[in-house]
Task: inverse folding
């Protein structure tokens, strides 16, 4: 076990805290100091809550000293994506239109973190309203990839992934609408899990696309993600889409890490052409590791996946157009008065506010979604996209008859350079080609590091998909693969990442 508290995994920190070898205040202080040292270069956070985190750490220490029954992660700090309502802390969604807004309530997920005594380190950077694949669409500037500060850390949750990868937080919460937990994990060499839709409450999560959004854990190990999943998961009567069922046995599965006899389905449509050779090579090697661990490999075809990207980019903008209509300059957030208008109408104030408050990507998607929902086009666009969604779900059902889990590379490439795809939205959207189908079908997915691509020495990701509410299968496969790859690498992949101390002095 490492003696550097910032590099310890969440499970290692839990063991230290449980044994009384270290206090939550010491752990939290070490992580806050690390953030002060490196986040000027990485820009993972939009808001750091030093006082609140230390107060929560002290409360965790008191609870442990009093002998209260605690979750294993009690006292282990966590960072939260800035799309979740946090009482007393700013929630901006990476947008100017919510700059300075402080919610009067906690999202259910945040409340569960607080009740479990996990100190909240702060709110992490993100693409505005979670629209993007690079975190370059944040109104407050991009986050950067700790492996190469001139490259993206993924999106929309690049703040959470970069915080974990740069050892500013052992755990973070992200949201995944089309891959925004899994794709950032892939390009930063971390672990990211999208639970089954409805498996983690969406109450208090600022909505992008209500039928797609799902919050989930980000971490450096599969077990850490499972432990965090256990804390935040479960039924919530405040969320009408919440699944009324127990959290699958994800921690037990991660600890067991057994894939003997498991049928691993390689999705034909999510490999090969269009995938960077180094990414594909690491994927092929990872599959062989699972075979060596006793898994059986089969090939499956999901032909409707060919249309997933097109369907997604009709459904998401349509729902976003509806959800973002609430930002009207009348109830909360930014209000801009149009220049040169003596007595502006509500509509004029609304237009001026949205023009100043929303970024280009948000405007692009609102326009697209409004068009798709307009009279005369609804059936041709949004309605047709929902029919394709049904076909994709049917493809998954057939595939899971032949295989227990499905696998693919998480993203087609490693991290691209900042600015490379800002002028080409379609090129940006293609980064989510392998992750989008899971969101359309509502099934769970997990990304684990598969190694470094030969072309650029940057991390690649391995995606595992499972049937709805079979999230434990993800963790069993992920942990088994992680154990074999870590042994092959001679240690965690993040140990090979550059030392940021040189660029932050």
Result:
């Amino acid at each position: 076990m490492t003696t550097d508290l910032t590099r310890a995994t969440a499970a290692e920190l839990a063991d230290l805290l449980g044994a009384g070898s270290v206090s939550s205040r010491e752990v939290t202080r070490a992580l806050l100091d690390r953030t002060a040292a490196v986040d000027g270069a990485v820009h993972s956070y939009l808001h750091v809550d030093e006082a609140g985190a230390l107060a929560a750490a002290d409360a965790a220490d008191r609870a442990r000293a009093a002998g209260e029954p605690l979750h294993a992660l009690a006292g282990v700090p966590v960072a939260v994506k800035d799309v979740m309502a946090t009482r007393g802390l700013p929630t901006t969604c990476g947008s100017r239109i919510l700059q300075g807004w402080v919610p009067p309530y906690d999202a259910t997920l945040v409340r569960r973190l607080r009740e479990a005594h996990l100190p909240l380190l702060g709110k992490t950077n993100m693409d505005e309203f979670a629209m993007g694949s690079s975190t370059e669409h944040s109104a407050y500037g991009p986050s950067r990839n700790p492996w190469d500060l001139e490259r993206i850390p993924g999106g929309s949750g690049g703040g959470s992934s970069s915080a974990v990868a740069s050892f500013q937080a052992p755990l973070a919460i992200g949201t995944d609408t089309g891959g925004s937990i899994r794709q950032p994990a892939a390009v930063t060499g971390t672990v990211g899990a999208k639970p089954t839709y409805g498996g983690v409450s969406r109450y208090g999560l600022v909505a992008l696309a209500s039928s797609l959004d799902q919050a989930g854990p980000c971490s450096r190990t599969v077990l850490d993600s499972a432990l965090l999943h256990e804390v935040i998961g479960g039924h919530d009567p405040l969320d009408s889409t919440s699944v009324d069922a127990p959290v699958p046995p994800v921690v037990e599965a991660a600890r067991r890490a057994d894939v003997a006899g498991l049928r691993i389905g390689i999705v034909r449509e999510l490999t090969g052409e269009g995938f960077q050779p180094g990414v594909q090579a690491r994927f092929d090697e990872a599959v062989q590791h699972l075979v060596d661990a006793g898994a059986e490999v089969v090939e499956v075809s999901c032909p409707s996946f060919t249309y997933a990207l097109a369907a997604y980019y009709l459904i998401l903008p349509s729902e976003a157009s509806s959800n973002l209509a609430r930002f009207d300059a009348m109830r909360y957030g930014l209000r801009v008065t149009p220049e040169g208008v003596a007595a502006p109408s509500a509509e004029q104030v609304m237009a001026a506010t949205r023009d100043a408050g929303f970024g280009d990507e948000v405007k692009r998607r609102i326009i697209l979604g409004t068009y798709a929902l307009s009279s005369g086009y609804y059936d041709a666009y949004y309605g047709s996209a929902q029919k394709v969604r049904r076909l994709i779900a049917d493809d998954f059902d057939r595939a899971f008859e032949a295989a227990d889990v499905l696998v693919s590379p998480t993203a087609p490439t490693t991290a691209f350079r900042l600015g490379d795809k800002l002028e080409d939205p379609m090129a940006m959207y293609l980064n989510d080609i392998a992750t989008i189908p899971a969101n359309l079908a509502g099934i769970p997915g997990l990304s684990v590091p598969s190694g470094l691509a030969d072309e650029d020495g940057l991390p690649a990701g391995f995606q595992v998909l499972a049937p709805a509410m079979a999230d434990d299968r993800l963790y069993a496969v992920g942990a088994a693969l992680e154990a074999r790859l870590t042994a092959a690498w001679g240690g965690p992949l993040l140990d090979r990442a550059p030392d940021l101390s040189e660029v932050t002095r």
